[in-house]
Amino acid sequence: xxxxxKMSLTILWVLTLLIPQVILAxxxxxxxxxxxxxxGPGGGHDLLFRAVTSVxxxxxxxxxIIKLMPGxxxxxxxxxxxxxxxDGYTLFAGGNIPSVSLPAIEGRSKxxxxxxxxxxxxxNQTIIVSRPDAPFKTWKQMMEWVKANPGKLVVGTxxxxxxxxxxxxxxxxxxxxxxxxxxxxxxxPVIVALLGGHIDVGSALPIIYSPYKNTGKMNxxxxxxxxxxxxxxxxxxxxxxxVPGAATLNMLGYSxxxxxxxxxxxxxxxxxxxxxxxxxxxxxxxxxxxxxYGDEIHYLGPDEFAKVLMSEFDVYKEIAKAYKx
Length: 325
Known about the structure:
The chain contains 13 helices and 10 strands. Helix 5 packs across helix 13 (302-323). Helices cover 46% and strands 18% of the residues. It has 2 domains: 2-123 and 256-323, D-Maltodextrin-Binding Protein, domain 2; 127-252, D-Maltodextrin-Binding Protein, domain 2 (3-Layer(aba) Sandwich), CATH 3.40.190. The strands form 3 sheets. A 5-stranded mixed beta sheet has the order 2-1-3-10-4, with helices on both faces. The chain has a 3-stranded antiparallel beta sheet with strand order 8-5-9. Helix 7 links the parallel strand 6 (154-157) and strand 7. It has helices at residues 2-27, 44-52, 56-60, 75-82, 96-106, 139-148, 163-175, 187-195, 206-209, 246-252, 267-282, 284-292, 302-323; strands at 33-37, 64-68, 90-95, 115-125, 127-130, 154-157, 180-183, 201-204, 219-223, 254-262. It is α/β, with parallel strands linked by helices. The longest helix has 26 residues, at 2-27.
């Protein structure tokens, strides 16, 4: 009898904890939801999330407000979002830099343990681009120029330990060349600096490069991909150019964007947001916008996204060991 009494009390206690969460999830959202973007305007995060969330009201029942918070390679936004109430009203636009590389390599920003992964929206390979008036037109010509002019090439990256930053560090190590790396707060500012003539070489995702294709304002030198991109049939891959460690570079040379909720957010709310974002990415108007950008969707739900996130985090932990020797 005593056993059943204890069991009843335990069940009652569990229900007392769970029922409010279930009711909250059923009602959620009752007001606009904010997504914190960790980079500046015009970058891959900004463009993609604005396109996808343009139909948020249709599928989530409330509008999504985009809030840009650049700085510290995305660490400032990550710290802010991770401290928000775990109620689903403040979400984080996660990515390689603030969610993986910075926590794994430098021990700052907020790594996987601070989040409830909601969904990955997409990923893109990196395109290495140069100013049209640079003293080279191809990747091979650039490398010859770099060897003849050590330390003179100015390369902009989306942030410290971003995939392009790691790629250039690896190239300098493997090919014994010297370049000047300049970190920015996102891919958009890199392109602004390139167009303004402040850097010689930068990196761009297809969604950022697309508006400048065939304009003569920048040259695509290389893609970090196993096969040539359909929209850039004349731009060689790192494998074709014989870049040292091309397979590893290709693995690191992509940037992803995903939705993350502060740790402690209920699974019911996570699933509701994930389902809404999946429907947003399948909306025909969103797909048309994304295609116009030269981009595409690679959606993963909460569980699949969590596995990929931890796997990538482990890879960057190994990179940290290599660069801290």
